[in-house]
Amino acid sequence: MMRTARQRLLGRTLASALLLVLAGCATTPSPSAKDWPMVPAVPSATPAPKAAIDQATTEAAAIDAASEALVSLPIPPETSPMADLQNVFDRIRLGYALPDVADASIDRSVKFFAGKPDFLDRTFERGERYLYYVTRELETRHMPLELAMLPVIESAYNPYAFSRARAAGIWQFIAPTATRHQVRVNWWQDGRRDIVDSTRAALDYLSELNVMFDGDWLLAIAAYNCGEMNVQRAIASNKAQHKPTDFWHLKLPGETKGYVPALLAMARIVANPDAYGLEFAPIANKPFFAQVEVGGQLDLRVAAAILGISEDELHALNPAFNRWATDPEGPHHVLVPAESASAFAETIASMTPEQRLPIERYVIAPGETLQKIADEREIPVATIKALNGSAIELFKAGNEILLPAMDISPLRAGLVIEGELPPRGHRGHGYVVHKGETLASISKRTGVPVAELARLNGLAAKARLHPGTHLITEVQERARAEGKAHAGRSKGGKVAHAAAPAEPRRVSYVVKTGDTLHAISRKFAVSVDKLKEWNQLSGSDLRKGQKLVLYLGREQDYGG
What we know:
- This protein is mainly α.
- Helix content is 39%, strand content 8%.
- The chain has 4 domains: 5-73 and 287-358, no CATH class; 83-276, Lysozyme, CATH 1.10.530; 428-486, LysM domain (Membrane-bound Lytic Murein Transglycosylase D, Chain A, Roll), CATH 3.10.350.10; 505-552, Membrane-bound Lytic Murein Transglycosylase D, Chain A (Roll), CATH 3.10.350.
C-alpha cells in the first residue's frame, strides 16, 4: 500500500520527536552492538529500514510492508451492514438477545441508574475507548450485546477499579479466575486490566457458563458474579423441592439477586434513554485503538512521545502495565490510537532495542552485588539479567553492566482518569442500621440493590453491619446547597454534582519481596512520612509479610 504525503510527513515528525525524547532520557550514550558486547537480549521487531522515511517510492513501500505487518487490529476489518451505523449504541441495541423481564427488582435498578446521569456520563466517557471493541468481540462470538453493559455494573468501565475482594479491571477478575483463563499477572503487568486479554477471558468464561447452564444467559450471568457452584447448588436445592430453577426462583446471594436485574436495567436504559430523561453522547462506531507489535521491551513514555499523546492516555489504552516499561518476556505489543497505528509501527520498526528502552552503562563499584544494585534501582534482578544476557556472568568490580536509563518505578496505583466507581461520599439520603440488619434486608426495605448499597458505602456485599452505622442509600441529584448555579446539563448530558468530603478508608497492605517505603508510597500516592506515621515506623526497614495500614480517599479505587 502506498503511503500518502500526510503519512510520510507524520512519520518524519514522529521520528524527529522521538530523537528529542531519547536525547533527554539517558545520561550516557546508548551502547551499540558494535562497540558494546552486553547487548540486550531483546530482538528487534524487524530489521531497521536503511532508507530515510521520505526516500524513493519503492523503498517507502518496503517500509510500509514492514509496518503493516506490525499492526494487528484485535478484530477483523468490518464487513457487516453494522459498519454503516454511526453510533455504537445503535449497534448494541440491534444485538439485544436477553429477555426483558417484568420484575420489580429491574424497575428499582432502572430508577436508581436513571437517577444518576452524572455517573452514567462518566462511565460511558471512560468506556468510549473500549466499548466498540467489546461490542465487536461479542458479535464475533454471537453473544447478546447487552453483555457490553456488564463492565458498567462491574467497574463503571474503569480499568483501574480494584475491589475489596481484590478483583481488578473492567471485568473484575479475581486472581484464581484470571489464572484459570491464562491471564498473565506479575511484577510488570496485571493482565486483568488488559482490555484485550481480559475481554477474551471474560467472554470465554461467560461462554463456558452459558453452555454449563444449557443456554440460559441469566444463570450464566449470575454464575459470573457468584460462581458456578453457588448457582448449581441453588438449582439442585430447587429441584429437590420441585420448584422452578430459573434465575428468578433461585435462592442466591443478595448481591447476585441484584446483579442480574442491574444488568437488565442498564440494557433497558440504553435501549431507550429518552424514556428516562437521559441523553448519551454518541460513541463512534469504529475502532478506537489498534494493536501494534513492538518486538521487545518498550518504555511507555517513548511510545507516548512518538504518538504525541499524554502518558496518561497511553496508560488508559494499556492499563495492564504496572511499570513505565513493558514486560521483557512479553507479550510485545501495545494498544495505540487507531489513526496513528501505521505511522507508529513504521517508527518502531526502525528503532533499535536500546532506543525502545533507553539504557545506560553502569560501572560496578567494589563490594557491590547484583541484588544491591537491583534494590537501589527498585527493579528485579531478573530484569538486569535479561538486559545483559550471558554477559552478566562477567559481573565484577570495574566491569560495566547495562541498566534502564529511564525510571521504571511503579505507575500510580489505581490511576483514575475521568471519575470513579458508582458514586461514593456524595451528599445523599441516609439510613441508620438497626440490630440484626444486613445489606440484603436494608436493600429490601429501601429498594436499593445490594450491589449499589455496597458500592455507595465502600463495603463488601457481605459486610457485617453494626447498629447505629449511617449508610448512604440514595444520592441526591443536585446538592441543594449549590442551588441552581451548578444544575443543568452540558453537552453529552453531563450534570454537575457537588461532593461532600468523605472519610478516608482503611486499607491493609502486605509487604512483598523488594518492597520499600518509597515504592509503596508511590504505588498508593501517599507520602513516606504518612506511611511511617500510620504504622509507627521509626526507620525504613520492611520485612516480607509485614502488614501496613494506609488511609486512602474513598473517591478512588487503587490497583496496580
